[in-house]
Write a structure and sequence with these properties.
The chain is mainly beta. The chain has a single domain, classed as predicted glycosyltransferase like domains (Thrombin, subunit H). 14% of the residues lie in helices and 42% in strands. The protein is built from 1 helix and 7 strands, in the order βββββββα. The two termini are 26 Å apart. 19% of the residues are buried.
Length: 118
C-alpha cells in the first residue's frame, strides 16, 4: 500500500516560521489574519489559525499573500478552502490556489522541487 503522502499529485514541503496573510476575496474591507503556513505545494497550502471563530469553511474563497523563503518573492493569489480540521487550540485549514499567475506558479514549482532535492 502506498503511504498517503506518496499519493499526492503535488508534493508538499513543510515550512517553519512563515506566515500567510488571509483576507476577503470579495473586495470588501476586512481585518486580515496572519496565520502560520504548515506546508505548501505547487497548488495549495495547509495553514494554522489560532482563531477558531474564523469563518473558514469548505468552498469559501479567500485571498492570500505570502513570501517564498529564501526568494523574497511575494505571492498573491485567491484560494478556495478545501477542508478545515479543528483541535482544542487551533484550526488547520487546507486551501487550493486559484488563478495563480504563471510566474508565481513557476516560482512555487522551483521552490518545492529544490526543497525536495535538498
Amino acid at each position: 500500500m502506498v503511504p498517503p503522502n506518496e499519493r499526492r499529485r503535488y508534493p508538499r514541503v513543510s515550512l517553519n516560521h512563515v506566515t500567510v496573510e488571509i483576507y476577503s476575496a470579495t473586495g470588501q474591507p476586512d481585518n486580515p489574519e496572519f496565520c502560520f503556513i504548515i506546508n505548501v505545494s505547487e497548488n495549495g497550502m495547509l495553514f494554522k489559525t489560532d482563531n477558531r471563530d474564523n469563518g473558514y469553511e469548505p468552498n469559501k474563497l479567500v485571498r492570500m499573500t505570502f513570501v517564498i523563503p529564501d526568494n523574497n518573492v511575494i505571492i498573491r493569489t485567491d484560494a478556495i478552502i478545501i477542508h478545515v480540521r479543528e483541535t482544542d487550540l487551533a484550526a488547520y485549514v487546507g486551501a487550493q490556489f486559484k488563478n495563480l499567475g504563471l510566474a508565481e506558479q513557476k516560482i512555487l514549482t522551483e521552490f518545492v522541487q529544490n526543497s525536495l532535492n535538498n
